[in-house]
Amino acid sequence: MTETPPIVLTVAGSDPSGGAGLQADLKTLHQHGVYGAAVPTLITVQSSDGVAEVELLSADLVRAQLSQLLEDMEPAAAKTGALGSPAVAHVLGSVMRETRFPWVVDPIWLPSRGKALSEGDVVEAYKKAVIPHAALITPNALEAGLLAGLSVRTLDDARVAAERIAELGAAAVLVKGGHLEGGARGTDLLLVEGELSELSPAALVPGRFHGTGCALSAAIAARLALGDDIPTAVKGAKTWLGAALAHAFAVGKGAQPVNHLWPIDAKS
């Protein structure tokens, strides 16, 4: 009998273009050799040019999906994407509190282009219900600023934000530096057990991309499920993502998706 690979759960929105959300998560998980399970939180009308419409799923429906799934399967790790509403964030937090596997939280409220992916005070709901149970949270500079209550433009700002987010209960924080200013652009900050590390990219890949945060967080979750610790998982996921971006291709008229087909052991 074939051995069952680790199961990784994603709880996120649907992107019919396949560049982000559940679709991108599942492709990334498959490429990393784990079995992907998926609970949708919202449906979008979306293309590579951006989000036109968003339909949020009810908190009760999300709860029912999670309950049925977790009675049947035992994930080795999980990740989150767009949750859509404070009610869904609180439902997810209650589930996270009862599980023993690590959760990688990618806090998504706004897409790169188009309509917002959330309604209500989702930021506050994340702070109260989700972040306290996260093994790792992966905000970009804007998201980190909203969570920490400051403008994040420099590495020093990112350091303060990471420490404030850790105080909310997250076991580890990765502040992504793609939107930082000047020479700090592209440098991520990882805070684990009080230790801060700067993670510089091998190279900044020019272009307009879609779903990079989804792919990164899914790759980290897959690597945690396969036995990596958080620093090793983050570094490995970043290496894979950099190469997958360098070899991206266009599938539509807008932003390019990550090349989810790129081998995880290839570096360039």
Characterise this structure.
The longest helix is centred in the C-terminal third of the chain and has 17 residues. It is built from 8 helices and 11 strands. With 268 residues, it is an alpha/beta fold. It starts with 6 loop residues before the first strand and ends in an 11-residue tail after the last strand. It has a 6-stranded mixed β-sheet. The chain has a 3-stranded antiparallel β-sheet with strand order 7-8-9, with helices on both faces. The chain has a two-stranded parallel ribbon with strand order 10-11. The mean pLDDT is 93. It is 37% helix and 21% strand. The protein has one domain: UDP-N-acetylmuramoyl-L-alanine:D-glutamate ligase, CATH 3.40.1190.
Q: Classify the fold: give the CATH topology.
A: UDP-N-acetylmuramoyl-L-alanine:D-glutamate ligase
Gyration radius, to the nearest Å?
Answer: 17 Å
- Per CATH, the superfamily is Ribokinase
Q: Report the sheet-strand fraction.
A: 15-25%
Total separate domains: 1
Work out the number of β strands: 11
Main pleated-sheet profile: 6 strands, mixed
Can you count the helices?
Answer: 8
* Spans of at least 5 consecutive residues with low confidence: none
| SSE series | EHEEHEHEHEHHEEEEHHE
* Secondary structural class: alpha/beta
CATH architecture: 3-Layer(aba) Sandwich
Give the strand order, joined by hyphens, for the main sheet: 3-2-1-4-5-6
CATH class bucket: Alpha Beta
Mean pLDDT: 93
Query: What is the share of helical residues?
Result: 25-40%
Distance between the termini: 35 Å
Estimate the global geometry from the Cα principal axes.
globular
For this entry, what is the oligomeric state of its chains? single chain
